[in-house]
């Protein structure tokens, strides 16, 4: 889901992150920006790709390629250790990235929670009115089915595991994960 978020931002002209496994930039851009000089304080042996892209990428010098042959997959021997290390690296790197990404992720996750909270309040306040309960439930169902279909299409385009059934939990936990990773530091 993080990958989809940063690719969607890049496609909309606001690149802020990259994944070193699937990232390319020209030699000219690298040298014009003094390479990785500004990122010599890496703490977790990685994250430089995220922070570097956030520093140099613009709508004018960024392109996204989702061709099947352009996708690089990593299959680590110890997936758990790899995932924990990736979380540490990204937590550091996200603090180096543009605040646009933080605000967008917090806002979108917050709106999902607000929608859910408003629905619960509407149903609790009108627990005897079946019309309200059915209407609110139908609206929530439409919202979540739409999100699940969207993520299903995205996962198909990116040749990933189907994300449809993972969407509700992942989207609701996004707010907590985003606040944790972007806490003031």
Number of strands: 0
Number of contiguous helices:
7
Please state the structural category. Answer: mainly alpha
- N-to-C series of helices and strands: HHHHHHH
- Helix amount, in percent? 55-70%
For the largest beta-sheet, the strand count, sense and barrel status come to: none
Structural shape = elongated
Quote the beta fraction.
under 5%
In the predicted model, the low-confidence regions spanning at least 5 consecutive residues are none
CA distance, first residue to last residue: 24 Å
Which features would summarize this protein structure in a list?
elongated; mainly alpha; 2 domains
Short description:
This protein is mainly alpha-helical and 185 residues long.
Could you explain how this protein is built, in words?
- This protein is an all-alpha fold and 185 residues long.
- The protein folds into two domains: 1-97, no CATH class; 98-185, no CATH class.
- The chain is 61% helix and 0% strand.
- The protein is built from seven helices and no strands.
- It has helices at 2-11, 27-32, 48-56, 79-96, 99-125, 130-157, 167-181.
- Helix 3 packs parallel to helix 4 (79-96) and helix 5 packs antiparallel against helix 6 (130-157).
- The longest helix has 28 residues, at 130-157.
- The model has no long low-confidence stretch (mean pLDDT 77).
